[in-house]
């Protein structure tokens, strides 16, 4: 029996006081989270403590893990959880199925040797109410920080997360293979012009991924049939990291333009700006047989522009691992030095 919106058990879920969103039916997606006021990019939308954390990845969980998790919930959590037994319009076959649908992957945790390599996932019933989009306006910053807006969100807009990995370099068909539902976002919807441009851009981004990383994002070993780069010389040079700094700089330059056109504010965009600037700077300071000519004044100004953009995006897109691994300060100093 279909439920009308006013009766839905989701309306009995406790949202944090002053949450900037409400749960509402979302056409074609069941229910979703909609902004109840303007949300500035970079703002934290929800900070939810996981009710239970598994030291395993989602696909490793057994029925007894689920049962253990359920047994661990306190009375109020079990009462709240009873409102989740109906995913939008359909009933789950069992409470354990409902539970599985409210788990999210967490950043890896520490093992007994103190090394960060244990896969984890957690029961986060409110965070799990955010629908997917391949053009998300929010992301899970971290368990500590919660869900953060990566774009400015207008009152009434749905707040979406991207559930997939490396979706910016995957076409609609490739993304659909990984999603357990049909995505109807602008990038996936064949009735929208954006979809065709988006597929073209993401296919080009996949080619650039091969040129700069030397591998195919979708398969371990690419064959003649699924080759992203058909030219054998170019393919081999990419696999052996034999491209010049000029070539790689142009790759990251194009990658930045494609990601901007796609409207994807992700840690990948910050990294792209950084590398686009870095390959110009390398030619200024590091002289090797493959470094190419010294950069022109225009190229230096362009690289400074990429760096300004990288620092700007870092203000609202969480990327703690990039902050640790890339030396932004050193690159900035090199770019603005006179020589
Ligand atoms: Zn989509």
From TrEMBL:
Domain spans labelled SET: 19-164
PANTHER family referenced in this protein's UniProt entry, alphabetically: SET DOMAIN-CONTAINING PROTEIN 5 (PTHR47332), SET-6 (PTHR47332:SF2)
Gene3D superfamilies recorded: SET domain (2.170.270.10)
Classification via SUPFAM superfamilies: SET domain
Pfam name, any one: SET
Alphabetical list of InterPro entries matching this protein: SET_dom, SET_dom_sf, SET_domain_protein
Name by which UniProt lists this protein: SET domain-containing protein
Organism, scientific name: Viridothelium virens (Speckled blister lichen)
């Amino acid at each position: 029996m279909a439920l009308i919106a006013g009766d839905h058990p989701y309306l009995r879920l406790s949202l944090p006081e002053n949450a900037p969103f409400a749960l509402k039916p979302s056409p074609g997606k069941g229910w979703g989270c909609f902004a109840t006021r303007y949300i500035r990019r970079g703002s934290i939308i929800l900070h939810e403590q996981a009710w239970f954390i598994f030291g395993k990845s989602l696909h490793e969980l057994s029925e007894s893990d689920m049962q253990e998790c359920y047994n661990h919930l306190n009375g109020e959590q079990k009462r709240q959880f009873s409102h989740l037994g109906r995913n939008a319009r359909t009933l789950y076959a069992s409470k354990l199925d409902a539970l599985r649908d409210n788990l999210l992957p967490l950043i890896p945790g520490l093992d007994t040797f103190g090394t960060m390599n244990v896969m984890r996932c957690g029961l986060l019933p409110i965070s799990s109410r955010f629908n997917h989009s391949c053009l998300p306006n929010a992301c899970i910053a971290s368990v500590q920080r919660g869900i953060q807006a990566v774009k400015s969100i207008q009152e009434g807009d749905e707040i979406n997360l991207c559930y997939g990995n490396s979706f910016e370099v995957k076409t609609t068909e490739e993304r659909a293979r990984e999603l357990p539902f049909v995505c109807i976002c602008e990038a996936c919807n064949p009735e929208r012009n954006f979809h065709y441009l988006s597929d073209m851009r993401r296919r080009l981004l996949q080619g650039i991924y091969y040129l700069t990383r030397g591998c195919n994002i979708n398969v371990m070993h690419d064959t003649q049939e699924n080759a992203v780069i058909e030219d054998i010389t170019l393919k081999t040079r990419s696999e052996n990291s034999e491209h010049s700094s000029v070539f790689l700089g142009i790759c990251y330059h194009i990658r930045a333009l494609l990601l901007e056109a796609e409207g994807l504010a992700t840690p990948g965009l910050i990294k792209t700006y950084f590398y686009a600037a870095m390959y110009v700077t390398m030619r200024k300071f590091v002289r090797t047989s493959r470094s190419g000519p010294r950069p022109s004044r225009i190229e230096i100004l362009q690289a400074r522009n990429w760096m300004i953009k990288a620092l700007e995006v870092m203000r609202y897109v969480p990327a703690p691992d990039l902050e640790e691994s890339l030396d932004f300060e050193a690159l900035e100093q090199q770019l603005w030095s006179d020589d």
